Each structure stands twice: as structure tokens, then as C-alpha cells.
Amino acid sequence: MNTTDRQTRLSARDRTMQRLLVAALLVSAAALAGCGANPDRNATHSIPDDYRTRHPIVLTEAEHTMDIPVATGDRSLPRAVRDNIRGFAAEHASKSRGAIQIMLPRGSANAGSADRARKEIRATLTAAGVPRDRIIETSYDAGGYGDIAPIRLAFFAIAAKTGPCGEWPEDLVENTMENRNYHNFGCATQSNLAAQIANPMDLVQPRGMSPIDAERRGVVIETYRDEGQPLL
């Protein structure tokens, strides 16, 4: 075998290897393209949905209520009930500038006792700082409450809330196979977070900063200079 024949065979072998390499690359590219055509079928890299988007915290108008039980023979309110009424008045002062409704039962056996108690309730609310012109007296049909129907105090205020929890519109098996959160996931967390927000307007705009305490700042700086203690 001369040198020319040997070079010809080596060139043919190189060309064959190049063809096999190109074919392998084409097969790999086709396989990758097939996977990319339907990403949802094999989506295992991440969870696409967010519970904060599915259960957002929004501002809405909510009714705040307090029921006051009144027995048929009651002549006055117990001290503990008057304390509860003052607490309800404090909640109204911090959350609303609207009116408080005193809703009296109508048609129940304790309707007379409730009518006597309304004057004491109004006086307690007034003493707690609720203006007289913001106390409204109404009545409701107490037929569904039996003989002892409560006096209800109510006012409306802006509150942070989420939608209702405990809804299961989809089968959990489908969510698990597609690696997605189920519909009710995160709803309780969002609802509890909304209930802890004291001022719902903090979700809209941050509050202004209070002025600095110049006297306290001077004391801290002098202590740091004189004794080398860390700032508190």
C-alpha cells in the first residue's frame, strides 16, 4: 500500500465520522425540540402560580358587630358588659368616623328589657367618647332568635380582607401531576395576615415619619463620646 492509498482511506474515514457526528447532533436537536413543544407535560423545574396573586389582600368595607345578651328580667347591664361596650367604642374610634347602630330586638320576650337597656348603652357609648349624633337606634325582627334576642351594636369601616377560603374547585391529583399549587393553598396565611393589619391604609401609602427626639439624640451621642458605649 503506497502513501496515496493510505491518505485516501484516512480521508474517507474522517468523512464517515463527520457524517455520524452531524446525524447525532440532528437527532439530539430534534429530541430537544420535541421537549420544548409541550413544556407543560414535563414541567418539573418550578411552580408557575403564586398564592399571593390567587388570594390577594384587598381593602373593602366590613361590618364590625357586638351582640349584648339581655335576659327578660334584667333591669341594668352588668359591669363586664359595660366594659365590653367601652372596648367596642374604642375600636370604633380607631377604625371609623361613621355612626354606631344600636339594633333592638322586636317581637321577642325580652324586647321590654332591651328597650330599658338601650338608654344605658347609649350613655356608656357617649361617656366613652362617641358623639351623640353618631349613635343611631334601629330595630330588627327577632322571630328567629327565640325568647332571648341580643342587642346588636354595629358600625362599618374599611378593612383588609381576602376572598373566602376552603374552596376546592379542582382535583388535587391534577395539580400534583402538573406541579402546581392547589387553589386553597396560601389562603389561610393571607387571611391571617390581613386580620393582623391594624391600619388598612398602610397597604396603600406609608405613614409619615414622626419628628426626631433631639434631646434623646443628644444624650445618646454624649454617652457614646464620653464612655465609648455603643449607640442604643
UniProtKB/TrEMBL annotation:
Keyword Signal: yes
Annotated keywords: Signal
InterPro entries tied to this protein: Pilus_biogenesis_CpaD-related, Pilus_CpaD
Domain of life according to the entry: Bacteria
Pfam families linked to this entry: Pilus_CpaD
Signal peptide: 1-33
NCBIfam families, per database record: pilus_cpaD (TIGR02522)
Protein name: CpaD family pilus assembly protein
